[in-house]
Amino acid sequence: MAFRVLMPAAVLLGLASGSAGCGGCDGGGFDAGISDVSPGQASVSLAWSLIDPSTGRSVTCDKLDANATVFVEIRSPTVVSSAVFACKSLQAVSDPLTPGTYRFMYELHLSATGDVIPATAGQSGVVVGAGQSVALAPITFPVDPTGGLALMLQAGSAGNCAITGASITSMSISLEHAGGAGDTGCEPVLIQLSGRGDAYNANDCSSPSAARCIESSETLTVPSLPSGPYQIHVRGKQGTLDCWGNDDVIRVPPQGKALRQTLNLARLNTPGCP
Fold it and tell me: What Å distances lie between residue 34 and 12, 67, 99, CA to CA?
């Protein structure tokens, strides 16, 4: 017993009686109430969404966590089985079921944070008759689509700013959305710097301003910003020349968690840099 994810390239694992199955993993679109079951069997269909409870707005699975999955537990008086599938498919239909009364429980699993979020409600007492395809009530997962950053920058092994290290005299930083169509553009942020208790205002991606050199022992903190993928642009300057750089794509996790990571700056082939 399993669910078929009706979307190309979706991930599905169906577990029943200790064996794995994949139903109709070849995709093909939602069946719109048309069942593939025989007259003596039954099926159910399911749709879900993610909602930010603080605003009531919908959240996309890809923006929240590209590898998020939805877990479904299926119970009857005689059978317990489960299915796991990609959150981004947003809908699925079951493999053939034995007619009977079922209970369904749902969880959203976030790979980025390890969080397990139960749906706002499960469903019990669902009667599925022979030859029927029953649409379950749509389910909702409450999620916090914000997180934070706690980054460090590493250029020379002896430090970023010292003459014996990378000899960086100033730095510029900008942050751009990297989620594809509909999720692009600059994200203005105020970055707190731990070394001197000051901050860097990263509010211009086209022409970021240069500020003091940030040492490798400092932490760059952004307490809150929308979850999702970003491309960060860091330039370490020697005088007016960009001699060190980083253009990594990073992902801000959801559920108020912070990405903690060290970004390595590479030497740039800028004429005039030592």
Answer: 20, 29, 17
Amino acid identity at 59: V
DSSP 136: P
Can you give the residue range of the structural domain that contains 44? 3-142
Tokens (6 digits) for 117? 């979020």
Does the global pTM surpass 0.85? no
Q: How confident is the model at residue 108, as a pLDDT?
A: 97
Q: How confident is the model at residue 41 (pLDDT cuts 50, 70, 90)?
A: confident
User: Where residue 135 sits, what CATH number does that domain have?
Assistant: 2.60.40.1120
- Residue 75: the pLDDT is 93
CA angle 188, 190, 196 (to 5 degrees): 155
At residue 63, the 3 state secondary structure works out as helix
User: What average pLDDT does this structure show over 198-209?
Assistant: 95
Length of the chain: 274
Structural domains in the chain (count)? 2
Indicate the pLDDT class of residue 39, thresholds 50, 70 and 90.
low
Return the bridge partners of 143, or none: none
Query: CA–CA separation, 113 vs 106, rounded Å?
Result: 18
Q: How far apart are CA 37 and CA 241, in angstroms?
A: 68
> What letter would DSSP give residue 89?
G
C-alpha distances out from residue 184 to 176, 177, 179, 268, Å:
7, 5, 6, 26
Strand partners, 49: 140
